[in-house]
Amino acid sequence: MADTQTSDAFVEFERVQKSYDGENLVVKDLNLIMPKGEFLTMLGPSGSGKTTCLMMLAGFETATHGDIRLDGVSINNIPPHKRGIGMVFQNYALFPHMTVAENLSFPLEVRKLGKAERETKVKRALDMVQMGAFGGRRPAQLSGGQQQRIALARALVFEAELVLMDEPLGALDKQLREHMQFEIKRIADDLGITVVYVTHDQTEALTMSDRVAVFDDGRIQQLAPPDKLYEEPENSFVAQFIGENNTLEGVVKEIKGDTALVRLDDGELIDCKPVNVSEPGERTRVSIRPERVEYNKDRLREGVHTLKAEVLEFIYMGDIFRTRLRVAGNEDFIIKTRNAPDQDRLQPGTQIEIGWLPEDCRALDA
Amino acid sequence: MSDQTTSGPVLAADGTPLKRSLSRALRRQKMRALLLIAPLLLFVLITFIAPIADMLFRSVENQIVQETLPKTVEALADWDPNSGQAPDEPVFAALAADLKIAVQEKTHTRLGSRLNYELTGASSLFRKSGRAVNRMDLETDAPFKEKFADIDKNWVEPDIWRTIQTYSPRYTSGYFLNAIDMQKGPDGAEARPENQQIYIMLFKRTLFMSLVITGSCILLGYPVAWILANLPMRTANLLMILVLLPFWTSLLVRTSAWKVMLQQQGVINDVLVWLGLVADDARLVMINNQFGTIVAMTHILLPFMILPMYSVMQTIPPSYLRAAKSLGATNWTAFWRVYFPQSVPGIGAGSILVFILSIGYYITPEIVGGTTGTFISNRIAYHISSSLNWGLGAALGAILLAVVLLLYYAYDKIVGIDNVKLGG
Ligand SMILES: Nc1ncnc2c1ncn2[C@@H]1O[C@H](COP(=O)(O)OP(=O)(O)OP(=O)(O)O)[C@@H](O)[C@H]1O
Ligand SMILES: [Mg+2]
Fold first, then answer.
1. Among B325, B338, B341, whose Cβ lies nearest the Cβ of A81?
2. Of the candidates A329, A328, A331, the residue with the CA atom closest to the CA atom of residue A355
3. I need a labelling partner for A87 at 20 to 30 A (CA). Which of B90, B115, B175, B232 fits?
């Protein structure tokens, strides 16, 4: 991916490395190509280097190695204020000594726009985030969600084509967060801007993004659209990190076309789709989503291997049932079933047999 | 999300106006807080407010004339000070009676030195007359006018009588007039002779030099505070010790060190001569003048500027500067429009501290100030401890206090006192 210089590349990271202390690499070999207008989310656990990447793009940290290009131009030597990148900071960074309108007008003033033009733009930006009536207030007089909107408006008011957002919704409660996710997505689509969005909330990443880059250990573990990321994780970190996931460990017995036969550690055999395994004898960790597990024998394909399971716990969650099972020694095996009229409510202690479609069960790295 | 606009007073759940029930709820809290600070409050009242009140009182108090010469003051009431002649016999008789008692109580010399502030020679006049009156017999020695004329012919001149009459009321504005280079003449306040005017000039000099010192503290302290606030914690703490180091050495040692540095045979002059920048016979005069005072006091007061600035700057997150730059501001614009306004409270606090400290500073100007670099406080100290004219010292102090309060008020009006932060 690193070597393909696609013509529609807008943001490009090429073999970028970053170290703060000269001993540890915080970002190791980052390669990323974003086309114009994309909404890309960097998702990853705390300390995985997401903010660092954003700061390098914005120009507040320099890459130790590698090249960052914006619209085909290397920006390693362009100072931050000339990059024209809008940024929403984790703590909003609204200037406390200026009113909301002054905050918004600041980027226009430094660009030497006329007063009338400034006022129209500020007003338009405020209306866009539905904060038109708050121009005269100080940031401290706004709620968290309102501050968030202002920070967003400020990053957009000078018509940056690229906007970076570092966990902008981290401080908000769940409901407001969901509302703002929707708003940000809508505004980004309306304006056609390119967005790099950082979060460690996977729901946020899945619902908002065109593509998600899953970070861990200073590398992009997988870069894919949300559905692909969820359904076809490429390694066990991604499978674990995105959504709920059941894992079973074992050794590959044989691989036939696009199915692999895996012998679990307690001796049972299951069918999987080989993803990160290529030859018999390799250790593997198989991953299966809770909602893809079937225990109703009628719905399983002929001849697939099944596993014995014991129901340990039944949790009623309204729209779904969440049942915890003991499977092949794993006591945290979860299955999720829809709350339908004909659905069984499995009682603890019941012995059942479970199975799945081989393509839903992915044999990943150990 | 939308602004709530209500008309009329807001009511609490039980129907009382919300304002009233809020203040009732807060009253208990306030009472408790007051009890907690009561010991401190008393301490402050006794050790801070009381001396100031006493000083303010002394600056107008003038009971000594009336208490020492009660009969004379009464008899003198009808005398016309513009007559050009000494009063008549009854006044002298009253004076003899008063002085007789005063001599026994040994209060006449004190009165003498009090009146000496206003009329040179009064002190010796009273001492001399006291001895003579002690030998008189009140019953038989009348008339007294000639007797007093024999003791000292100043008694038959109008000057001393005019002074006694002017200063006979219990309270006087005399000290204050004196403190602004004026005096009480026969027709009210008048300017002192040119060669006796000193205080207005001293006040002006004190204000001017304090401003210069505050200004140089800001200029020197701001970059230091900025560096301290932006360094990693460990290094910053280390450097902070260097800033605080002067606090741990004696003020006198530091001031004397400046003498060593700045004097004509001192380190700096030696270096300049050695470098050939200054001729050996034209060594710079940098001590015992205004320059020396400004340099030494800037050095001594600098920590008071750096500390509040540092603690304010520490609370300014670096993300503001980054945000400003990401919005397109150059380094300078980002600093000037975003960082600097937020550091103003620190500058304000530091300036108030340094200015008020320097306006009343005494030791350093005394040591390195010479004649042109001394402050009004040196004059106050002189009146308190050497000339013992406490009233004048108190008046000078009261004026100084008023000036400081006035400046404080002006600062509040211009910058806003809530814009002063010592930290957090
Ligand atoms: N200024 C710095 N100096 C030294 N190390 C740093 C600095 N900033 C970040 N790091 C280190 O770099 C690593 C990545 O940090 P980064 O802030 O990029 O993580 P992140 O993915 O944004 O995490 P989070 O989700 O918690 O915000 C961390 O181990 C952190 O300790
Ligand atoms: Mg971060």
1. B325
2. A328
3. B232
